[in-house]
Amino acid sequence: MSNLEARPAEQVCTAGEAGDGVELLEPREVPLGGPRAMTVRRTIPQRARSLVGAWCFSDHYGPDDVSGSAGMQVPPHPHTGLQTVSWLFEGEILHRDSVGSLRAVRPGELNLMTAGRGISHSEESPAGSRPRLLHGIQLWTALPGAALGVDPAFEHHGDLPVADADGARVQVFLGTLHVAGEELTSPATTYTPLVGAQLDLQPGAELRLDVDPAFEHGLVVDSGDVRLEGAPVAASSLGFVSPGRRRLTVTAGPGGPARAVLIGGTPFTEDVVMWWNFVGRSHDDVARARADWTAQIADLPGGATSYAGGARARRFGQVDGYATGPLRAPVLPDIRLKPRTRPS
């Protein structure tokens, strides 16, 4: 998914200060493609905390009725220095990218795209017959410095590990999680120690998860009355806990079932600058990526865009099959940001 804000801020990502309790991060609403398009609820990045482990972006959306509209329509756009994690609760999304992938993702399946030095992709609600509702979460992880130059790649995983315990169902889509003495490990590629899992809880369930004490964790609540370590976390908000815990307890209220997504990882201590769809280590990194993408885009009459000659062989490649041309990159901010150094 692209960040479609017209004037995205250039952000120095920071892990924030460690604390003993549960830190609550409330979302802000961001319209994708304008006020009449679908709206997402973004919890990270934000000023107080922009990283949970290497997780650097979280957009929660839906349930949206897409039966009478075009649904999700995100034209071809570029990425660097990250992995995109597409995860659905309801509906279907069709993914195309510049390494030749064409793959639908459905609930319980994982689409994982590694940008590395550069990739471009599009996402859309399939034309014709499709599920009425679209509902899910889009996540990004920042790649470590050693992986910034890796070749772009795409993975689809439709058979992910699942376990039932304590009145809950746990499905791990990234990394490893221990549930009721069972080790659940996703086959997906990661570049830093990470975990990502969907938690579905029955009314009144109390789920106890054995976790890596070196990890910090975030819980994004989709629906229901949910508490993390006894603290209430509202729908679309993120509850954060610092490293040091060997067990996390997630509970659902008695009034109905609940659903949440757990993310976590070792604190990411490298410098990170993020702007639009680019993750780098400096302002120069994102400025160079923007210039490279702009060189691939040709303006057409009426404000439309197309690929410039030879785009397929350039840094971000070319996405084939999407109905419109690629997105233009926004204008960079006037200020030049320097990443702050984090303690090791």
Automatic annotation (TrEMBL):
Which N-terminal residues, if any, form the signal peptide? none
**What residue stretches are annotated with the Pirin N-terminal domain?**
39-140
> The Pirin C-terminal domain covers which part of the protein?
198-295
Q: Which InterPro entries match?
A: Pirin, Pirin_C_dom, Pirin_N_dom, RmlC-like_jellyroll, RmlC_Cupin_sf
| Domain of life per record | Bacteria
| Family named by the database record | Belongs to the pirin family.
Record-given protein name = Pirin family protein
